[in-house]
Design brief:
Elements: E1 5-10, H1 14-25, E2 30-36, H2 39-49, E3 53-56, H3 65-74, E4 80-85, H4 90-98, E5 103-106, H5 111-123, E6 127-128, H6 130-139, H7 155-165, H8 170-177, H9 181-195, H10 200-209
Parallel strand pairs: 1-2, 1-3, 3-4, 4-5, 5-6
Helix pairs in contact: 2-3, 3-4, 6-10, 7-9, 7-10, 8-9
Amino acid sequence: MGNPIRVVIAEDHAVVREGTRQILTSDPHIEVVGEADDGGQVLDLVAQLVPDVVVLDLRLPVVTGIEVARRLQAAGSSTRILVLSAYDDDDYIFAAMDAGVAGYLLKTAHGEEVIDAIHAIARGDVVLQSAVAAKFIRRRPPERTPLSQEEELTSRELEILRLAALGLRNKEIADRLFLSQRTVEGHLSHVFAKMAVGSRTEAIVYAAARGWLVIPGVAP
């Protein structure tokens, strides 16, 4: 890999902030360049340091996390935001997504999930924890707009996308379908290209919102 992913942690509870820093610094490809315990500090640090990613709590004093996201979006900031929140209320999730955050994880997520999400967001992906994705899909009525004949998913591509929607990783999908991991990755790349999306999460949300697949517990 090239330069490390430069991250600012925004969290007003010191013990949570310290724990998050320990998790992130365990990855040699992530560099924590700043920490903030209120929203005003976050805005100042982003202006000064221009980090790649901000790991953002929503319940910050002075300026809320939602308002931080809105201001950065309005300013055209290149810094991408990963929300790490204890709240899965619809109002928080929808306000955060509308404010332009690139990811939303709950604080029940494992450290590896947070690290993976930071890498994905730094690549330009959108990351939603499954419980969050479910709420987001329910908010969007199914459009059921078919792809063109040239873009239509094959039965194998749809099968792989359905397994991805269940949370299986590429190797697990490959093992279940008796395929190589490279073949699964190739099929997913074709799916992304046909849908004009950049990640598994975006593809799953795109397909589920149009009624093409069913995620357990998610009604389109």
